[in-house]
Write a structure and sequence with these properties.
The complex is a heterodimer. By secondary structure, chain A is an alpha+beta fold. In chain A, strands 2-1-3-4-5 form a five-stranded mixed beta sheet, covered by helices on one side. In chain A, helix 3 crosses helix 4. Chain A starts with 5 loop residues before the first helix and ends in an 8-residue tail after the last helix. Chain B has a five-stranded mixed beta sheet. Chain B has a four-stranded mixed beta sheet with strand order 2-1-3-4, with helices on one face. Chain B has 23 helices and 17 strands. In chain B, strand 15 and strand 16 form a beta hairpin. The chains are: A alpha+beta, B alpha/beta. At the A-B interface, helix 1, helix 3 and strand 2 of A face helix 4 and helix 5 of B. The structure holds flavin mononucleotide (FMN), iron/sulfur cluster (3 copies) and FE2/S2 (inorganic) cluster (FES) (2 copies). The site of one iron/sulfur cluster has 14 residues of chain B, from helix 17 and helix 19.
Chain lengths: ~140, ~600
């Protein structure tokens, strides 16, 4: 790169910041994708990519996406848990890339649930049960 | 393109030397082999601070904190964590932690606040873009385009930033002296000599976040009207040198160093100068002489370097840690900085915590944190459940803090008032097995070796004091030796030319002050309670406890233990060389040390 002007430095900073936001610790919302064997087989990777892409497209950088192992809901894979502060934690089932994009637009940005794909709220024992290798 | 995971691999000196490079390469290879190199980004970072547990790997975004990771774990990390999203539990720092594995939950980080080390372990120090993404060079922008030099100086004064190189002189004031000094040519110097035994804060900062130093020096250049900076660093720090050189090259390429920075009419450049690792070259006037190519010997001040420094020109000289604070103060403001710390000492301090402590490593705490918090909450207490005896701060210029002062808030003034010193930040924790005379002798030996020899009080006084301590440690001390030590200490303080000689007696005064009874024991009872002074101790066998297993006799290198199988053994004191091997070997506590 040649010598930069002030504006060039600023725009470089903005674009690099966007790239690095995934690495920042403090996020508000959280998306957890089940990436157990069956999750991957059912297309969790594609959903993951769709999430990343849609968040980036809308410049949403206070949401962190993590993957986790089997959530125990193999029959509704890909399963995704979404936690937005001030909203109930929800688990979505059968999340294909389209649903993933809807979740970003409606749930994360619009703050309303994507009702037709809600699978369940996680049972309390899953939340407390220390299933730390398996989701959450 | 964003990545699903980021694998941060510590590339600090401690981690790199314990298989860090091989680990990085193994991870790289596995990502490829398992076909996921586009899903996870490998990032080499600076020191995470928790070197005791290194090599360290942190995985984002879930912040899994893996410790003692070796190349042999690479396959598993990729297969399990990156592909399946399952943590490799055996490698987690706290293996029993049910949830929340992030470093934020690790006790070691709880009471820390990272300003100086904000980017260490977070960014790849070899890519300027990552520094820029973390608001890097934004402070420089602000200084060049939105602030006057006086405003910058006022901000530093209001912030209450004091030098972290030892003496704690107000940084804003130093800069204003240089700015106001007459002369067209001025210089900016970074003191990265770091000679204190046991200290490595500055090295880690240069390795983990070199651009923060460059940015700050450039800010100083603009503020005081200098166009050239020098970083003086010891040649024993090859990794830090490499990272700094790389950072300078990248900053030049981007036009953040060189002519007309960011299109303004301000020009500034930085060069490295390597030192040979003499402690006295850390003293500012000696350091400047060394940069000029002369022998590194201190000269009397005033005039201070701020007015008459490098090649006789006004020069700002600051310590690495001082520099690293500056971009943050400019960006976040003096009020923010001012709110951290104590009345007289603002901000944070980085310490290299070493010695008999469970979690040794690099820590950064707000000024005013107590020694108890550092040792027990962050440091995880004393190794092996032993008793805390003292902490040595300030290196050869400092002194000890004893258990009575565990609750003293750590800041410049309170450490001074108890006869120790903030110094540059080495903190060595000692337990009941450490002998205070032995420790003091160690520091004296260091200062005697490192004295440049220019002035008699330091050259002769230091040597004489060392000899007295040596005599005491051999059981040949007399009561009047204590007075001699004190007298000489006074003379050295008053009559030495530079800080080395002036502060060299500090460890003596401090240990006499707090551990006089230990000196008296050595002198009067010819006893060393810690069992460190070889001439004052002996190993004997307790005939009651000895079962005659012969283990000690077999291990003794000089063959001075005799006895029949199944009957008590004895040690021939004349021949014993006090190596302690028999003591280690006996499983029946039959060998007594004392
Ligand atoms: C014997 C001796 C050794 C010193 N070694 C260092 C050193 O290694 N690093 C350092 O920054 N300052 C060292 N200093 C302090 C420097 O002389 C100087 O005060 C400091 O670099 C100023 O920077 P600051 O205001 O940012 O602390 C040493 C001083 C003495 C007397
Ligand atoms: S005090 Fe010691 S190190 Fe300093 S100038 Fe004198 S002899 Fe040299
Ligand atoms: S090792 Fe201990 S028990 Fe065995 S012979 Fe030596 S002193 Fe006795
Ligand atoms: S201390 Fe060493 S030399 Fe002495 S008796 Fe034990 S093993 Fe032998
Ligand atoms: S493996 Fe996917 S829910 Fe069980
Ligand atoms: S060098 Fe890796 S944690 Fe310090």
């Amino acid at each position: 790169m040649a010598k930069m002007t002030l504006d060039e430095l600023r725009s470089l900073r903005d674009s690099k910041k966007k790239e690095m936001t995934q690495r920042d610790g403090d996020k508000n919302a959280q998306i957890v994708i089940g990436m157990g064997t069956c999750g991957i087989a059912a297309g969790a990777k594609e959903a993951f990519d769709a999430f990343l892409d849609e968040l980036e497209k809308h410049n949403v950088n206070d949401t962190r996406i993590t993957q986790t192992g089997c959530m125990g809901l193999c029959f509704s894979e890909p399963t995704v848990e979404v936690a937005v502060p001030g909203m109930p934690r929800v688990i979505y089932g059968n999340v294909d890339p389209d649903v993933a994009r809807r979740i970003v637009n409606e749930h994360i940005i619009g703050k309303s649930l994507v009702s037709d794909h809600i699978f369940d709220k996680p049972a309390q024992d899953i939340i407390d049960g220390g299933l730390n290798n398996h989701g959450i | 393109m964003a990545f699903k995971n980021y694998i941060l691999v510590c590339a600090g000196t401690a981690c790199e030397s314990s298989k860090g490079v091989a680990l990085y390469e193994a991870l790289e290879k596995e990502l490829k082999a398992q076909g996921v190199e586009t899903e996870a980004q490998l990032v080499k970072t600076g020191c995470f601070g928790f070197c005791e547990q290194g090599p360290i790997v942190k995985i984002l975004p879930d912040e899994s904190f893996y410790v003692k990771v070796g190349p042999e774990h690479a396959k598993q990390i990729v297969a399990e964590h990156i592909i399946k999203g399952r943590q490799v539990k055996e490698l987690l720092y706290d293996k029993n932690q049910a949830s929340g594995t992030s470093s934020a939950n690790i006790d070691f980080y709880q009471k820390q606040q990272r300003i100086v080390l904000r980017n260490c372990g977070v960014i790849n120090p070899e890519y300027i873009d990552e520094y820029i993404a973390r608001d890097g060079y934004a402070a420089l922008e602000k200084v060049i385009f939105d602030m006057t030099p006086d405003q910058v100086i006022q901000e530093l004064k209001d912030a209450g930033l004091r030098g972290r190189g030892g003496a704690g002189f107000p940084t804003g004031m130093k800069w204003s002296f240089t700015k106001d000094a007459p002369g067209d040519q001025k210089y900016v110097v970074c003191n990265a000599d770091e000679g204190d035994p046991g200290a490595y804060m500055d090295r880690s900062t240069c390795e983990g976040d070199p651009h923060s130093v460059l940015e700050a020096m450039t800010i100083a250049g603009h503020t005081v009207g200098a166009n050239q900076g020098f970083i003086y660093i010891r040649a024993e720090y090859p990794l830090a040198i490499e990272r700094l050189e790389n950072a300078i090259a990248q900053a030049r390429e981007y036009g953040l160093l060189g002519e007309n920075i960011l299109g303004s009419d301000f020009s500034f450049d930085i060069e490295l100068r390597l030192g040979a690792g003499a402690f006295v070259c850390g003293e500012e006037t000696a350091l400047l002489a060394s940069i000029e190519g002369k022998r590194g010997m201190p000269i009397p001040r005033p005039p201070f370097p701020a007015v008459k420094g490098l090649w006789g020109k006004p020069t700002v000289i600051n310590n690495v840690e001082t520099w690293a604070n500056i971009p943050m103060i400019i960006l976040k403001g003096s009020k923010w900085f001012n709110s951290i710390g104590t009345e007289t000492s603002k901000g944070t301090k980085v310490f290299a915590l070493t010695g008999k402590i469970n979690n040794s490593g690099l820590i950064e705490v707000p000024m005013g944190t107590t020694l108890r918090e550092i040792i027990y909450d962050i440091g995880g207490g004393i190794k092996g459940g032993k008793k805390f005896k003292a902490a040595q701060t300030g290196g050869p210029s400092g002194g000890v803090i004893t258990a009575d002062y565990l609750d003293t808030p750590i800041d410049y003034e309170s450490l001074m008032s108890i006869g120790s010193m903030m110094g540059s930040g080495g903190m060595i924790v000692m337990d009941e097995d450490d002998c205070m005379i032995d420790v003091t002798k160690f520091y004296l030996e260091f200062t005697v070796d490192e004295s440049c020899g220019k002035c008699a009080p330091c050259r002769i006084g230091g040597r004489t004091n060392y000899n007295i301590l040596d005599k005491i440690s051999k059981g040949q001390g007399e009561m009047e030796d204590l007075d001699k030590l004190k007298e000489l200490a006074q003379a050295m303080r008053k009559a030495s030319l530079c800080g080395l000689g002036q502060t060299a007696p500090n460890p003596i005064m401090s240990t006499i002050n707090y551990f006089e009874e230990e000196y008296l024991e050595h002198i009067n009872d010819k006893k060393c309670r810690a069992g460190k002074c070889k001439d004052l101790m002996s190993y004997t066998i307790d005939a009651e406890k000895c079962i005659g297993c012969t283990a000690c006799a077999r291990v003794c290198p000089v063959g001075c233990i005799s006895g029949e199988v199944k009957s008590p053994h004895i040690i021939d004191q004349e021949q014993c060389i006090k190596c302690g091997q028999c003591f280690e070997k006996c499983k029946f506590d039959a060998i007594l040390k004392g």
